[in-house]
Amino acid sequence: MRHFGHIPSATRTGLFHSEPAEFTADSPARTLATALGATLYSPATRPRLADDIRKQAARGVVSMVLCLEDSISDADVEAGETNLVRQFADLAAGAEADARTDAGTAVGVPLLFIRVRDPRQITDLVARLGETVRLLSGFVLPKFTETRGRAFLEALTQAERTSGRRLFAMPVLESPELLHLETRAETLAGIASITDKYRDRVLALRLGVTDFCSAYGLRRSPDMTAYDVKIVANVIADVVNVLGRSDGTGFTVTGPVWEYFRPGERMFKPQLRRSPFLEGSAEDLRTALIEHDLDGLLREIELDRANGLLGKTCIHPTHVVPVHALSVVSHEEWSDAQDILRPEQGGGGVLRSAYTNKMNEVKPHRAWAERILLRAEVFGVAKEDVGFVDLLTAGLAG
Asked: Quick one: a GO biological-process term for this protein (predicted)?
């Protein structure tokens, strides 16, 4: 699979200075953590889930979570588990059929994760999936703390041993202990300890901002990002501070879900700047984005990246392409990163950007540059004259 692999090769050639690289579910963990992109959630009870997965893969989705937790009722859990086993069998059969067809028309399976409610489900589902477990990349672990998380991670380790399949964990940080100021530091320290112990199994950490808001009876509007809700922004900052460091101790932390609302009365003027949208039909695209309240999503994605988050939880397919379009590395970012990481700059120093608009200080900017080049590998580098609107338009056209 590859990002923007759903668009024609000729279109990619026109957009990218360096095209996104291919990767598989067996690629290194660091690559997969960066490549998650827009992780699309779906209830595990959907009757045509296998078809839904294949359809979304054909539209550019590369990671999905099949949810047995908050998205379904307590009464539907058993049915959801049974449905997952059946749908994985259908997916496996489809993959085998694809293997017998022209490779150019085959539709791959994205990285698939199951969000469970309790540790027992991990070992039970892996046993019930049988050989179709090869299509599973791991599990999403809800309301993760050191105490609660240990049992999940032990179950994951046991499931790996019995299945012979590498399985990753994606803990969700959403517990009240993390939100409440008086218990936050202790909770973060505990999460850091248990995730470090199982570092090889933890692919990324996900933020449960909806649960954070729920603890205070809050719900942000389409005109507000998570960073406008200060109590939430403070938690995000502390999570990145402790768990997102670039010194080798940190993890990929993904951006919070964007909750989709039907348009009501807009309290603020649209946040999208008009200038990038004035050519050709771009103004129509801008209007469509605003009508669907995606201008707030775009702003939040930018703030995610500025605050050290990568990728995003998504609950609607229309959110996927904007997340991926904004994940492509600009030619300017790539140029700066290349300059900073040149071998002859190993001793440090200050460079003028090749774009002559900023200072590149080699030692302080090194970690940033390394992250940029890793993102460039999986999302590609845009050509100098290609911007977000071009990438978005191509991604939507497919």
From this structure: oxaloacetate metabolic process
**Which domains does the chain show, CATH number per domain?**
1-19+329-398 (no CATH), 21-327 (3.20.20.60)
Question: Exposed (0-12), middle (13-18) or buried (19+): which is 267, by Cβ within 10 Å?
Answer: exposed
41 CB contacts (<8 Å, ≥6 apart)?
Answer: 64, 65, 67, 71, 115, 257, 313, 314, 315
The pTM (predicted TM-score) of the whole model is 0.91
Residue labelled with tokens 């067996």? 26
Rounded CA gap, 139 and 112, in Å?
A: 8
Q: Which value, to the nearest 10 degrees, does the dihedral of the CA atoms of residues 209, 214, 217, 220 take?
A: 30
CB 373 within 8 A of CB 337: yes
Quick check: 122 and 139 in contact, CB under 8 A? yes
Token pair recorded at residue 316: 């609607």
Per-residue model confidence as pLDDT tens digits over 78-123: 999 999 999 999 999 987 777 666 554 456 899 999 999 999 999 9
| Residue 71 CA: distances (Å) to CA of 123, 184, 287, 315, 329 | 21, 26, 31, 10, 33
Question: Which residues, in sequence order, are bridge partners of residue 64?
Answer: 40, 112
Distance CA 224, CA 21 (A): 34
